[in-house]
């Protein structure tokens, strides 16, 4: 049986995965419903998959944070403690991440093998360039978009689908969180 692979991401309405300027985390729009829902998503048994850049960003962010910081929201702490595979040709283990292993090689090959071997679902939060390549290779089963009600045309960073292939998206699930955040789960197929 092949494990399901979910590309999980946060986005502004105009398609940016991060932001500069004076915005705060979650673009300042998070509420208790979003945070509880995120914790429930990560409570399930699963394996995280990150590219090297996302691993480095998470490790830096967590190292610079305090226990009271929103960076250490309970869902993030849970995510950090899940079994994790970091796909990289530049990193070497051991990593400063509980239960993480580095696998060297092309992400398409690594994830194809993980999908065949894993007994639990696979999830990647972020890792934009890696997940664009995985989508193009047909390895992403679900695209899980949490859409925040902001436009960051001047301060947006990390355009999520820049240089991506074209995809048709079948909406399989959606919900509104805290009255204004949209969660959209799609099944992507190459167009």
Automatic annotation (TrEMBL):
The record's listing under InterPro entries reads: DHFR-like_dom_sf, RibDG_C
Annotated GO biological processes are:
riboflavin biosynthetic process
Specify the domain of life of the species encoding this protein: Bacteria
Drop me one GO molecular function for this one.
Answer: 5-amino-6-(5-phosphoribosylamino)uracil reductase activity
Q: Which segments constitute the Bacterial bifunctional deaminase-reductase C-terminal domain? A: 6-178
**What name does this protein carry?**
Dihydrofolate reductase family protein
